[in-house]
Structures are given as structure tokens and as C-alpha cells.
Amino acid sequence: MDRRHFLQAAAAASLLPSALMPAWASAQSADWPKSPIKLVVPFPPGGGTDTVSRLVAEKLTVLDKWQVIVDNRPGAAGNIGLDQVSKARPDGYTLAMAQTSNMAINPALYASMPFDPLKDLTPIVEVCAQPVVLVVRNESPFKTLADLVQAAKREPGKYTVAQAGLGTVGHLAGEMLIRAAGIQMMQVPYKGAGPAMTDLLGGQVDTYFGSAASVMPQLQAKKIRGLAVTSAQRLPGLPDLPTVAEQGYPDFEATTWLGLVGPAGLPPNVVAAVNKAVNAVVASKEVQDRLLAEGNAPLGGTAQAFAQVIQSEHAKWGKLIRDAGIKVE
């Protein structure tokens, strides 16, 4: 999976700040960093974002001899941690691992945001992306996505689709499919992937849009069956599972992407240094193998490319949320 479909407009304006840098920033020496870097993870320890962040931090220490300290700041679907970074001094010593939810979904989902992801943060580099997978239990009569769509059209509103939480990529992927296929299904929200999977296996719900990481163990154990993956290309870890797009819904894509950002006004030399270092980390075989094993597609790329991804995703998810009338109370 790559980002070329997001980046066809090569001359599109970057989100990187264009204002004049303060004197202290422009005077930074080329041998940055000179002290430890704090990497804010806006989610609790042990989750997917935390795991990827610690992997990147560990490899930056090995490959570049940087000291990167992971600082978990969970809360408000990732807003608390990113707000902290948006208000930090833009010297490169406070960065964050941002993702789809807090950069592209939350701005439309919440009535107010403590920061503007398009103005208050500097995109540095995209690290990886993970799609969600539409799955059913093995006993389900649905063998393909077309089977599900045909059944839902015959009996509107009969079938249910589980999602791990309101406003998650899995929730919005389900809404995208419902709209693209012209069907009616009841969305059933859960507080996390575990309860959703338990009810799918128990027959309380018919389908589940879950992250690749959350469904792969059950897929490998043959307790559930995959109908489609929401990435633009098939996952290397699930090469026989077709995408939604190739099953009749062109341009369908829904992924949770992760990438490094810093405060607005981050000096260009710092952006360049972090971008170069993280690209080397993501390109290493060990990191690629670990990311792929967890259902992630390794990415990397330029800061300008990541800025364009953020811009595109912000517009896409915002429109879907507004059109569907989805709100967080």
C-alpha cells in the first residue's frame, strides 16, 4: 500500500508553516538534537499507536543515537496529547505520534477542539497505515461482500455491523460501505475491539469492521472469515483477501495512519532531520517485518506528502461525518 493516490497534485501547497521563524529557531545548529526528544503518544500504553511509537523511538536510539522518551498522554480520543504538543515550544524537542482520529476525524466529530490540526501542528513524516477488515464468523452464510450486500438489500435493517467505538475508522468505514452500497445496516458501538469480537463470535452481531491487528489472530485461527479489507491495495499479511474497492466500490479506502508531527513553526532543519531519520527507521527490514506482522503497511515519505495526506483525510472524513450527522455528545 502506498500514498500515490493521495499525492497526484504534486504542486499542492504544503501545510508546513511559511511564516518567518523566530531568531532562536533559525539559529539552530545543524547538529540538532543536543538533548532528549519527548515523543508524546496521545493514547494509553499497550495499544497500537503506543507500540509503533516505542518501536520508532527504540530504532532512532539505535540508528541515530538520539535519546527519544515516549510520554503517554491519553484522553479525549487523542486530543489532550496533541493539544499539549501544539502549545509546546517549536524547537523539535517535543513531538507527537498523530493519527487519523485526532488529525482528521475529531475536528468534525467534536463540537469544539483545543487545537486546529491544519494550523497548529507541523507534519513531519508518515510512518505507517493500518486498514480495517470486514469480518464475519465462520458459520455466517456470507462468503463474499456481495453476499452481504445482496442480503442487506433484500432485508433492510436486519443485519448488524459492530464497531470498536463511535468515531473510529471502523465505525466510519461501516458508514462508508452502507452509503456506497445503498444498504441499511444497524451500527452497534462497543467500548473496544475485545467486546466487539466476543459478540461477533457469539452471534450477537452479524459483521464487524475491526482493525487488522484486532482480527488477524482470529482469522489465522479460522474462527472468523474476512470479506474485505479497506486499504487501497491488499495487505501482504492477508494476500487472498480482496479490497472493498476491487469488489465494486472504486476509491473506497479507510485506514488508520500514524505519523510524526510537531508544533507549528518547527524549523525546516529539524523537520528535515527527523524526516530523514524516521524514513531510515521505516525502511529497515526489522521495522518493516514488525509493522507488517501487526497488519500495518510501512510508509515514510516527505513532509509535504504527509501534509497532503492530512489535508485530504481531513476533508474526506469531515464530509462523511457531517453528511451522516454523526456527533459525540
What can you tell me about this protein's structure?
The chain is of the alpha/beta class and 329 residues long. Helix content is 39%, strand content 19%. The chain contains eleven helices and ten strands. Strands 1, 2, 3, 4, 5, 6, 7, 8, 9 and 10 form a ten-stranded mixed sheet that branches. Helix 6 links the parallel strand 5 and strand 6. Helix 2 packs across helix 9. The longest helix is centred in the C-terminal third of the chain and has 22 residues.
Classify the helix fraction into a percent range.
25-40%
Low-confidence stretches: 1-29
N→C terminal distance: 35 Å
Describe the oligomeric state of these chains in a short phrase.
single chain
So how many helices?
Answer: 11
Radius of gyration: 20 Å
Form type: globular
Mean pLDDT score, rounded? Answer: 89
The main pleated sheet reads as: 10 strands, mixed
- What percentage of amino acids are in beta strands? 15-25%
| H and E order | HEHEHEHEHEHEHEHEEHHEH
Q: Kindly state the number of beta strands.
A: 10
Query: What structural class should be given to the helix and strand makeup?
Result: alpha/beta
State the gist of this model.
It contains eleven helices and ten strands. The protein has helices at residues 23-26, 48-64, 79-86, 100-109, 145-154, 169-181, 193-202, 212-220, 268-283, 285-293, 303-324; strands at residues 37-41, 68-72, 94-99, 121-137, 160-163, 186-189, 207-211, 224-229, 255-263, 297-298.
